[in-house]
Amino acid sequence: MNATSGRHAVDPYATDLVAETDLLAALLAGADPSLDVPTCPGWSVAQLLRHVGRGHRWAAQMVASGADEVLDPREVVGGKPPDPDPEAAAQWLRDGATELLDAVVAAGPDAPVWTFTGPKPAAWWIRRRVHEATVHRADAALALGVPFEITPATAADGISEWLDLLAARPAAEEPPLPEGRTLHLHATDDGLGTAGEWTVRGADGRVTWEHGHAKGDAAVRASAADLLQGVLRRIPADDDRLQVFGDTALWRDWLARTGF
User: Fold this and answer.
1) Per-position DSSP letters for 16-74, written without gaps between them
2) CATH class of 3-144
3) What is the pTM of this model?
């Protein structure tokens, strides 16, 4: 097995990581590095690229060292892209994805490593970085005024991955959903089946979720791509692409309480 095939075989999300990072790199390579990114206040296109590329390497270096605590992002080796060459910076971004996959191959996909949600197998970071690249590709597309295109399956998985992160958060005095209240999300794309529906419940200061159809106190319907942008606050809560039913205040409060 050669290095390339080994990288792609290490985890089902490995191909997606390369593809999503490549799409983001291609988008940013032709952009003005100083352009503002409205959905990431205070960031420029150059900062967005650096954030994702450094993040890939940050995860890779934690995997490579078997870290049991978080690595300070300022200590990431090679954490700054070449400047000012946009093409070289775009390749630096792509190389970050490869570095992470190589680290997981070397460590083994099941090797334990620090994550936001406690110790997890090293391969956990591949899926996390897929969706980090995806959401920031949406940011770049919005900044550049071009369509954000993503397969329904990838967008739906991004919603599920985000809900996993939220469900792992500690109990809070003001949780995303009040006790016993429910939010139902429904992607309208054909072919997703139950993978395109999510029922989220508030319980004990936290949230739980499951796939499937159920009546919620609030419900939001949209394509998976628009729903992903909605739950990640890349489009407004009342955007015309989102159909919101029931308790609209519950939906707005959910968004206000689920920031990064």
Assistant:
1) HHHHHHHHHHHHHHTS-TT-B-TTSTT-BHHHHHHHHHHHHHHHHHHHHHT-SSPPPGG
2) mainly alpha
3) 0.95
